[in-house]
Write a structure and sequence with these properties.
Helix content: under 10%
Distance between the termini: 34 Å
Mean pLDDT: 90
Largest sheet: 10 strands, antiparallel
Low-confidence stretches: 1-29, 295-301
Length: about 500
């Protein structure tokens, strides 16, 4: 690339920043929400006259939901870029692609309707198919979607039904209770530690040593584990560790403290639990889950939600605080363990099953995992690493969550310790800005400032043009694009924030 073209490229990068407009619980016409199918989504293939067994297979995939209009009763959305895959490795595979519409609202009670026009390819033939749920009641609170769509143009020999259960997800970041070796990575670097922060997309977000590097633990930082995680504005990762250790710069670090990857103590365990007036006073009960409260129904002031590793008696509340309760740093119990599990109807309702990970949605819905497994009605089993909702459904089974890594170990569960959800349903942060563009070995290195918790860089060769992500979703505020200069002499970037 000539110096003139590089300068031109650099100026375009510096001058262009696609605005990230703030929005709340309803989408804006200019930006679609990404939805992912969850546990319980199914495709049913039925022959009404031939008597063959009905085929029901799990279905996974994604679609985008874009707001079209809002009237006094309903919000109407476009369903775009629908791509589902149903079936099993040993059986039939169905590919479903298409688009449609969705509306949500109601005058007296909440109702919803989804209509889809798709093509279903069963590996032998590809057939167009239309589906319409009709106007039906809402079973999961917005922004979650759970809806049954019968085929409206089926035949007596083949009629499909789609069970769509979806959430607005980009990625889920988490840690596991036990380590494993990833089958998709080179043997020299394929071990995933319980202290690593990993993504449902099948990649390592941050190694444990990257999280703890600035804590001042000398002479070398061991793997300190990862019990809880959240991300503050500006991409600052906060977390707790599994055991106590001494820092040369911060002093004693406890496994109940909230620490920062930037090398500071965000909140000590004593300040978190102090409002509960524990008796007798406890040094450190450990920390199993943590989230800084944002715009949730649980929040009355700036607070942290967290869980502990051991029970204690609260003098201020006059009751025992259990390790499975979701607590507030304001000195109240946000949800008891029994309340979190109520809709699962555990066989032993008096048991405390612990609370290993938690994420509170802006709507107030809570996703979590338990330390111990349990059973519900009709022998339904829920494992200690499964991701659950307090609305009474399974979000992901543990093995599906870690599935993109293709673990070599044969285990029934790897556990779930830390949890952070990247979703379009959270309010958008104020517009960020690029601060620098640098040439680095014929690549383009971008730096920026923004109040988002995580970021992604998109690139387009021209305007108007198609924006494609060139970076992973990340908490960092810089990125080197190694392909830019080799592909074209100019380019346009936009910064996405969540």
């Amino acid at each position: 690339m000539s110096l003139r073209n590089f300068i031109r490229y650099s100026l375009i990068v510096l001058l262009l920043l696609a605005a990230s407009q703030g929005f709340s619980q309803t989408t804006t016409p200019s930006r679609a929400w990404n939805y992912v199918l969850l546990e319980g989504s199914e495709l049913t293939d039925e022959c009404l006259i031939c008597g063959r067994p009905t085929i029901s297979v799990p279905m996974r995939g994604s679609f985008r939901l874009r707001l079209l209009e809002v009237n006094p009763l309903f919000a109407r959305y476009a369903v775009e870029d629908l791509k589902f895959l149903a079936g099993s490795a040993a059986g039939l595979q169905y590919q479903v692609t298409g688009s449609g519409t969705y509306r949500f609202g109601g005058e007296v009670a909440l109702q919803q309707e989804m209509a889809l026009q798709v093509v279903i390819d069963d590996g032998f033939t590809a057939r167009p198919a239309s589906f319409d749920s009709g106007l039906v009641s809402v079973s999961r609170p917005w922004p979650m979607i759970a809806i049954t769509l019968p085929q409206t143009d089926g035949t007596p020999t083949r009629t499909y039904t789609l069970q769509v259960k979806a959430a607005p997800l980009r990625e889920i970041w988490f840690s596991t209770l036990t380590g494993f070796h990833a089958g998709v990575a080179p043997q020299t670097s394929n071990y995933i530690s319980p202290g690593d922060l990993i993504s449902s997309a099948g990649r390592v977000v941050k190694r444990n040593h990257e999280l703890t590097a600035r804590l001042g633990v000398m002479p070398s930082v061991p793997d300190l584990g990862l019990d809880a995680v959240d991300i503050l504005p500006g991409g600052e990762i906060i977390f707790s560790i599994e055991y106590d250790i001494f820092s040369e710069t911060l002093g004693p670090l406890h496994h109940g403290d909230i620490l920062s990857a930037k090398g500071r103590i965000v909140r000590s365990y004593a300040s978190l639990i102090g409002a509960f007036s524990p008796q007798p006073p406890v040094a450190d009960q450990g920390l199993d889950a943590v989230q800084l409260v944002r715009a949730t129904e649980l929040a009355t002031a700036k607070e942290f939600l967290f869980s502990i590793e051991q029970d204690f008696f609260s003098e201020s509340l006059g009751r025992t605080i259990r390790r499975g309760d979701l607590l507030s740093s304001l000195g109240k119990v946000a949800k008891t363990n029994a309340e979190l599990l109520a809709r699962f109807s555990p066989t032993d309702a008096q048991q405390d099953y612990g609370l290993d990970a938690v994420y509170v949605w802006p709507s107030g819905e809570i996703w979590f995992s338990t330390e111990k497994g349990f059973t519900g009605p009709n022998f339904a089993a829920y494992g200690p690493g499964d991701l659950l909702s307090d609305q009474g459904y399974v979000v992901y089974r543990n093995l599906e969550l870690v599935g993109p890594f293709q673990p070599i170990e044969d285990a029934s569960s790897f556990g779930l310790d830390a949890l952070f959800v990247i979703t379009d349903a959270t309010p958008r942060p104020p517009t960020g800005r690029f601060t620098a563009v640098e040439r680095a070995n014929l690549s383009v290195r971008l730096s920026w400032e923004g109040e988002g918790r995580v970021f992604q860089i998109d690139r387009a060769p021209q305007l108007p043009g198609s924006w494609l992500p060139v970076s992973p979703i990340m908490p960092d505020q810089s990125f080197t694009d190694p392909e830019a200069i080799y592909q074209q002499s100019q380019g346009f970037y936009q910064l996405q924030q969540w």
